[in-house]
Amino acid sequence: MFSKTIRAFSTSSTSLKNIKIGLIPGDGIGREVIPAGRAVLENLPSKLGLKFDFVDLDAGFELFQKTGTALPDETVKVLKEECDGALFGAVSSPSVKVEGYSSPIVALRKKLGLYANVRPVKSVEGIGRPVDMVIVRENTEDLYIKEERTYKAADGTRVAEAIKRITETATTRIAKMAYDIALKRQAIREASSATGLHTSPSVTVTHKSNVLSQSDGLFREICRSVYDANLGLYDSIAYREQIVDSMVYRMFREPEIFDVVVAPNLYGDILSDGAAALVGSLGVVPSANVGENFAIGEPCHGSAPDIEGKGISNPIATIRSTALMLEFMGHTDAAATIYEAVDANLAEDSIKTPDLGGNSTTQQVVDDIIRRF
């Protein structure tokens, strides 16, 4: 995805110290795909010099239904004090208000300072549309601050309101991450003899400032000012802007033109899920929740109750998220090993889960990927 030039928390990919990973399956098929991430880590070639320990942690809507707590304090404490990184599976999201419940992954992002959600969306030859983009989503604010209220208007009808918060601080750091990723992707392209969709880097700032002139207007303004203030560093990057509704249209009509896309929380969430349709399935799209010194790999799919327990959930999004987590931790050789094995699996037609048109089980896909290390 970003390979050996991504900004990382550690500079060595051959550290002999044990790496402790928190495993948070969550709900539904999260309990089926997180073991896939663990299996991949346990079976990495010994020459990479990595050894993993694991700790099982609780979170999720089903836990909330049993205990009244979706994110136990102990889970956060262990992640902060003991773990080097983590994998999160999936969380069920009730469509109606449930008193006292809020999403544990949203809470984790805030408690651990994971201000960026990074979602690479890349096609494999012969599967879906030609796509090679990274959506960089601000992870801590916008409408997801969950400051809502419902009240009665003068005529007795109910009114619901939600606060959309955009800050200069959060926008500055997410803009810098997007520009840095664009530069690093370009460095990888220049170092490789392979041809790709992009010959030069670009960042597309997505917003709706024509309507939301203050909130989205600030996001747009700060993204531009960060670019202008660092022209000596970012001058090779083409700066672009796109209103979010036309962004959706263009992303489906001509996805090949987008390199790095940066967006506020809500738009980034929608765009990244939509982009998954371009590459065959949500089951192949990874993400990482990233802060200054911690990363949580998280597949983009949900808890998928319709296929839970059938053994056919696609583990590739989790396996790629595992590699992405390693990348942000600085273990780029291990990440590359996983990416190459996944791409080799996808390039063949024989072993695929039903969401990709095959009839293989989750475990068969995991086994096939591991045998390619």
From TrEMBL:
The EC number(s) this enzyme carries: 1.1.1.87
Annotated GO MF terms: homoisocitrate dehydrogenase activity; isocitrate dehydrogenase (NAD+) activity; magnesium ion binding; NAD binding
GO terms of biological process kind: isocitrate metabolic process; lysine biosynthetic process; tricarboxylic acid cycle
Superkingdom of source: Eukaryota
Listed GO CC annotations: mitochondrion
Keywords, comma-separated and alphabetical: Amino-acid biosynthesis, Lysine biosynthesis, Magnesium, Metal-binding, NAD, Oxidoreductase, Phosphoprotein
Primary enzyme class: oxidoreductase
Entry-linked InterPro entries: IsoCit/isopropylmalate_DH_CS (IPR019818), IsoPropMal-DH-like_dom (IPR024084)
Leader sequence residues: none
Pathway: Amino-acid biosynthesis; L-lysine biosynthesis via AAA pathway; L-alpha-aminoadipate from 2-oxoglutarate: step 4/5
Catalytic activity: (2R,3S)-homoisocitrate + NAD(+) = 2-oxoadipate + CO2 + NADH
Requisite cofactors: Mg(2+)
Pfam name, any one: Iso_dh
Family assignment from sequence similarity: Belongs to the isocitrate and isopropylmalate dehydrogenases family.
Annotated protein name in UniProt: homoisocitrate dehydrogenase
Species assigned in the record: Candida tenuis (strain ATCC 10573 / BCRC 21748 / CBS 615 / JCM 9827 / NBRC 10315 / NRRL Y-1498 / VKM Y-70)
